[in-house]
Amino acid sequence: MIEIFIPGTPAPQGSIKFWGTSKAGRGILTTACARTKPWRAAIIAALTGGDGRPLEQFDGGVIVAYEFVMPRITALPKRRDAPPHTKKPDVDKLQRAVNDALKASGVIGDDSCIVAGQYLKRYADIGETAGLHLCVSAASDDVDLYRCIEKHVD
User: Fold this and answer.
1) In what order do the strands lie in the sheet containing 131-138?
2) Deepest in the core among 16, 83, 124, 150, taking most CB within 10 A?
């Protein structure tokens, strides 16, 4: 099982922008979020050791728990818990970036291997670092996904 925290600002993946066609007749496409590539690179670096090999490889189905800790905005109250994060980016696009990083790092063979998951997107608590709490385990393991997330929320 991999249980890890990746600091940084979670970035979405999935929105592709069409800029037109090149002189060769090919479509010019870019991702809409410039932060996606560095965020995915940070996830891959965390999931691979200094030698570039994955911390762990899963051959069959996996279950994944994602807890996206979004940066705290200044408009949030200083003395109360933060309200739910109901703004963009969408949690499914945040997951897509993580899933692609799981594949690119060699932790999983393909994101189709993810058979179950649990996710949470929230603002950071006062003094907490933004980032991603990630828990990946084999589907055959007896893992409580809620435990992976709840221990960081309390």
Assistant:
1) 2-7, 131-138, 62-70, 114-123
2) 124
Torsion of CA 39, 41, 46, 50, to 10 degrees: -150
36-81: pLDDT as tens digits: 889 999 999 999 987 889 999 999 999 999 999 999 988 888 887 7
For the beta carbon of residue 152, count every other beta carbon within 10 angstroms.
16
The radius of gyration computed from the CA coordinates of the chain, to the nearest angstrom, equals 17
CATH code of 2-153, in short, is 3.30.1330.70
Q: Kindly give the interhelix angle for 91-105 and 36-47, rounded to the nearest 10 degrees.
A: 50
Angle, CA 97 vertex, CA 96 and CA 101 arms, to 5°: 115
Given this model, what pLDDT does residue 133 score? 97
Determine contact, residues 113/99, Cβ cutoff 8 Å.
no
| Amino acid letter for position 147 | R
Per-domain residue ranges of the chain = 2-153
Question: CA–CA separation, 37 vs 144, rounded Å?
Answer: 31
